[in-house]
Please model this.
Amino acid sequence: MKKLRGLSLNLKLLACFLIAVFILSAFHLGSYMRLMKTMTHEAETGANERMASAVARLEESFSQIHSAYYSLTYTTIFRKVRQLGTPMEYEMIDLYNQAALYLGDNRYIEAYAIFFRNTDQIVTSGGNYPDDSFFSRYYINERYGVDFWRAEKTASFSQRLYPAAIFTRNSPFPSGQSGMLLPAAFKSYWNNNVSVVFFLDIARLCADADQYLAEDFYLFSADGQLLYSSEPEPALSAPPDQTESLSAASDGGYTVQRACSYGDLVCVKLLPRSAVVGQVTSSLYVSLFTALAALVLAVIIGIISIRRVLYPVHDILRLLPERDAAPGRTDELLYIQSSVEAMLRQREQYARAISQKDAALSGFLLQSQLKNIYVEINAPESASDTPELVFHILYFRIHYRSGTLDSISAEPSAVSYLLMENLRQTLTQLFDAALIFQLEPTQFVAKVGLAPARGALEQCMERLLERLENEREHAFFTVVQSGAVEAGGEFTGVYEQVLDAAQYALVEDRTQLLHLPLEPDAAGSFFFPSDQEQQLRVLVRDGRSDEAAALTERILAHNLDKGIRHIHMILLCSGIVGAALHALGELRREGGIPNVNSGGVYNALPRCDTARDYQELVSGFVRSAALCAAEQPRTEDAILDGVQAFLEQNYRREFSMDELAQTLHLSKSYLSTYYKGKTGANLSDRIQYFRIRKAMVLLEDPGLRIADVGAMVGIGNINTFLRQFKKYTGMTPKEYRMNQRSGQ
Model:
């Protein structure tokens, strides 16, 4: 040990370095299996990334086909035929010309057929025929014959993809020509009078999207049905269970799959075992060679560096200012330490100051971006010969009628996208320039431009409202139109005025157009006198839920008859909710107001579209508040306490009023009369309200399905649960859960 202590610093450093090299080498040799696993993971990652890129381009190709369909459905003749379901001969000819215009240039649509629900005549890419002639003479497949498509045109769906099959095409096509085609059927969201079937050249579509999909590629539906295989004899009949990673296939290879957002497809790529193993092996060799080269380089650098660290103190002292030179050789290390600590403290101060300035700058930029939302839109036109335009800001809000969204199989986001595309095409046709973006799923803002012309804007707006009126069966719109703004004008202020003006639309189930500046009568009000407020508070405090809800509906109906606007209706409803809360506060001065989801009601008021929405939301809340007041302890009562105890123990199952009465050793009629007289509320309402209160707590758990929550509180029928929940809360369970998630 003494001999080791006597070694020079150079030898000590060299010995430490060699020991470190030895330890690292041993660790490297012992981690071979770990390295293999890492390489396999890299192969998985590479396969997933390659598959994700290919599927993204495939989705773009499908989206182009979908857009072609949407463009066709927007034409006047298609909309007319969709409403009638039985086209005339001249209408079929017109539809054939429009279909050829929108679908004929798509290289992936090998052929198409347009079916009508009430006739056997069809419009095809080759002409107009009876459906049996087209599928028995011109377009032949044993599986997809005329009987199959006749059955499909009566089925209810919005979009379907069928397994690809070989179709033989006779005259007027070249004799004997055949190909692998994938049928895709589309129907309107609103009715199924018209069906459009595309026969897609799926092999070309996949290969053009990405050559990676040209071989060993499979398409499956969401339920596991094989739709397309690039190989004549498919090696896979169902998608693998494991998703988004390499999984072993039956033939010794591997599969990698990716979900495709279009049509809920599952894309699967079969990789040969040799390709995966070769990639892993080559990556391993590269890694080992790199590690070995790094080890040799580290040894060389270490040996060279040892000689340069023999006198570190002198090198560091040269970097320090001469006026702060070390006082003596013995204090050099302490002096260096204190100097380095001072520099680090100064560096931290600089970093803190820079961080504060960066945060302030980021906040300023964010505010600027929000306040100047139209900066990109205000960019001048690139073409020099574009005429000077006068711009207007348009605001659209769609109000869906009750039950409309429930009857549509598509996701709300897809419906919003379709609506925005329809608005975009309409505005593009009516105006010289148009830009539109989405604020919320039901709100859109557009900037439109017109060349100066007398009466041109009024004509365009009339045609726009006519097109919106076509959807009156399913929805109605609130449209706000700003005044004229020059191309270089300030759009931000106009944008804010348009949003504010939308609140002054009348609460009516019809499409309305508001102009800026608003008319003087827009500054209306609402009727809610103090005597009605006092009466409502008494009814809620006494627990008379039916009377309180009826009074609420009379107040709302009176204001609706007078022509109330949305902003004033929100204020009126807020006043009614506040009166109910005030009544509850009088009962519980010490314990505070009980939780009756008033925050959720306030949050839901701006999203109400129709008078019925306001009535259901507010009357449901008032009914819930009255029942809550009825259950507050007033005096000790054995029967009331017995009812409460029975509900606490049995609300999770269904039971009858007779069972409750027998448990308390009373008759059913006496129990109902007694409870009504003591609390002012019906016992049946009390039971259902108790279950709904328990359900509100369970809905805060996002892992529980809504149907399961209903069963857990003793309401097994999902429709009954939805109806009762809305009756006592004014909103659906889904809306209540969304309010809770948003932190309201």
Q: What stands out?
A: The chain has four domains: 52-271, 313-371, 390-522, 530-741. The first strand starts at residue 109 and ends at 116.
